[in-house]
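Q: Sequence in, structure out?
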Amino acid sequence: MKTIVFLTICCLMLACNKEEPRSEWKTFDFDTFTLEAPSKWIEFSAQGYDSKVGGVTDGKDTLTYDYGMYSYRFTAETSKTHIITESNRDGYPTKMVRPRKPGEGLIGIYYNLGVIQLTLLGRSRNENTFMQIIESVKIK
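A: Exactly. Output:
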């Protein structure tokens, strides 16, 4: 009897955490860049004073972007609290951060596009989905 209860609980937990296959994700076009996110996510825009801001959300988790001269460069995140990776993507220097402890810090990427920068960031315990969205970013 204990085995049946245990197996039932395991099956329910797996069913609740089922991720949408990448083939069912959709592409969001934000004029200067695109990204892919699960099909249930929606795009939104916000009022920016010196930049273009907006993002995508599923109502629970939100990934925002800031495209402008003063986009956040992840200056408060340190190697003690975050995994920091610097590289080049689409020909531009980038800085990617994610918390060492899931759910305890920002997840995001900063693009140095010259005078204008692009930052995408958010907080989520579902780092896998956030990282997949960030990895899908393409600068036009």
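The beta strands are 26-29, 33-37, 42-46, 51-57, 62-68, 82-89, 92-99, 107-112, 117-122, 138-139.
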